[in-house]
Amino acid sequence: MDADPRQYENIEVNENDIHKIVLSYLVHNCFKDTVESFIACTGVKQPIDHLEDMEKRKRIFHFALDGNASKAIELTEEFAPGLLEENKDLHFNLLSLRFVELVCSRKVDEALGFAQSKFTPFGKEQKYVEKLEDFMALLAYEEPEKYPMFHLLSSEHRQHVADSLNRAILGNDFLTLYVW
Hints:
Elements: H1 15-28, H2 32-42, H3 50-65, H4 69-79, H5 83-86, H6 88-104, H7 108-119, H8 126-137, H9 155-179
């Protein structure tokens, strides 16, 4: 039930709820030291293995963000088995980051082999066909950075995929562990 905005000043906010929201934000963004300080200062219940899990997520996030999609995929499969199988869009996006890495490194033969082995199952679904065409067109350009779909090479695109991966891992089963 939504409260009438005119009544917000009459709503009492529970301090524990505020602590849970702040902790959720800190855990989501992998602020390990701040999480430790926050827990020490507030006395909020500390989740089991939260620091180790957070470090693993942080490593996965940074591998995706830094352009090492293969390592991000490998660690995701170890840390959250089945996640990429369940989330085909995310898996496709991670694979496409790897493909872009190969193209930008001018490893055309390796990129073609990778595309053939990893993208083939996606080519059977119409929602991926246009995306696959965009990625495969990268091979036609001497300088992929000048490709009309240059955003596929951008750090913003990698950031988006890394953020999606982080949210998916948290949503897998960790969010409930940390927040509530």
